[in-house]
């Protein structure tokens, strides 16, 4: 080996010497070893050889990961994705209520729909109060869902959940009203709002009020009056809400929502303006048409700005034909999105 190194060294010297006149040779002759230092002083050249590796490692196996990484926490975005009110989802809530059957006070369907509302509110993270009251030998039950408690002034959204016992607008009928539009549609809007209001955007405390014993007056149930549950709730309020909005009979597929005569004018104007901004101007018509005895009235009478969003041009009102096919997801969505926009972006503090 030593001899070989010496020979290589001598050759290198020879060619280094020659390189003065032929500089290109050096670069072609030293590829297998690098001469890092050449001493010509003693005539005994010493070379430091940097050998090129003679062994190349060939991979003998492919790497197989032995574990997958599992995230231990979910990433929470700082800007929450807005959840939009969905008409189809609301319509499904309407259909669920219809499966309970007619829902007049004291009927099996009435108890079922009340329990369903309570379950749904709880499932969506709302605090639930059952507000019992006695009326005509019956135990009435308002249901109030609360959220954003303490965040600001109270806003009440309301709807009645009972349905009329006698369909007295169907000639000679003693059958109950199925209550798809007059009952289920208002509840559907409120429960879909419970799911979709982006509460972080709302600097108000929100109450969803489901009124009992609204619809039995004038022959619905013997001796009963209208708006019993809402009257009880308004009388027993312990805080003064900033505003109250009622939704009643809003699910009509042939939807026309006119100004209602007992409603607070400024709030009514604002809501119809929002609907117009959302493209619903053909359905929210800013002209006065009906004046209603409805669940907003006890709040109006207490000086609370209250509005009734109602479609009273409904040919199946208090008939046996008030069935789910007369309602539509689009109608529910127009009302729901208007309220959603009002609560999230247009409500004065
Ligand atoms: Zn009714």
Short description:
Helix content is 32%, strand content 16%.
Written description of the protein model:
By secondary structure, the chain is α/β, with parallel strands linked by helices. It folds into two domains: 1-52, no CATH class; 87-346, Zn peptidases (Aminopeptidase, 3-Layer(aba) Sandwich), CATH 3.40.630.10. The chain is built from nine helices and eight strands. It has helices at 2-19, 24-29, 87-99, 108-123, 180-196, 228-235, 265-277, 297-300, 329-346, and strands at residues 127-135, 138-147, 154-160, 205-211, 243-248, 257-260, 284-290, 306-310. The strands form two sheets. It has a six-stranded mixed β-sheet with strand order 1-2-4-3-5-8, with helices on both faces. Strands 6-7 form a two-stranded parallel ribbon. Helix 3 (87-99) crosses helix 5 (180-196), helix 3 (87-99) packs across helix 9 and helix 7 (265-277) crosses helix 9 (329-346). The protein starts with a helix and ends with a helix.
């Amino acid at each position: 080996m030593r001899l070989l190194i010496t020979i290589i060294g001598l050759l290198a010297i020879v060619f280094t010497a020659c390189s003065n006149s032929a500089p290109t040779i050096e670069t072609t002759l030293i590829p297998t070893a690098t001469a890092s230092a050449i001493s010509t002083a003693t005539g005994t050249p010493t070379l430091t050889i940097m050998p090129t590796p003679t062994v190349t490692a060939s991979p003998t196996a492919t790497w197989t990961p032995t574990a997958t990484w599992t995230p231990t926490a979910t990433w929470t975005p700082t800007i929450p994705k807005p959840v939009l009110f969905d008409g189809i989802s609301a319509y499904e809530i309407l259909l669920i209520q219809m499966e309970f059957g007619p829902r007049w006070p004291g009927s099996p369907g009435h108890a079922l729909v009340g329990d369903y509302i309570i379950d749904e509110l709880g499932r969506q993270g709302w605090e639930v109060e059952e507000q019992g009251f006695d009326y005509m030998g019956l135990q009435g039950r308002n249901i109030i869902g609360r959220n954003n408690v303490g965040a600001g002034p109270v806003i009440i959204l309301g709807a009645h959940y009972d349905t009329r016992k006698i369909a007295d607008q169907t000639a000679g009928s003693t059958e109950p009203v199925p209550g798809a539009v007059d009952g289920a549609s208002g509840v559907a809007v409120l429960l879909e709002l419970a799911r979709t209001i982006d509460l972080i955007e709302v600097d108000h405390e929100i109450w969803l009020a489901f009124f009992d014993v609204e619809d039995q007056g004038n022959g619905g149930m013997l001796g009963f009056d209208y708006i019993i549950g809402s009257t009880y709730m308004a009388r027993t309020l312990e805080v003064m809400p900033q505003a109250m909005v009622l939704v009643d009979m809003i699910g009509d597929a042939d939807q026309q929502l006119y100004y209602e005569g007992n409603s607070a004018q400024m709030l009514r104007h604002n809501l119809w303006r929002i609907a117009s901004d959302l493209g619903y101007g053909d359905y929210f018509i800013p002209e006065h048409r009906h004046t209603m005895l409805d669940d907003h009235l006890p709040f109006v009478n207490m000086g609370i700005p209250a509005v009734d969003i109602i479609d009273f041009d409904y040919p199946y009102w208090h008939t046996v034909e008030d069935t789910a096919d007369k309602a539509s997801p689009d109608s529910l969505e127009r009302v729901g999105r208007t309220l959603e926009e009002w609560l999230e972006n247009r409500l004065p503090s």
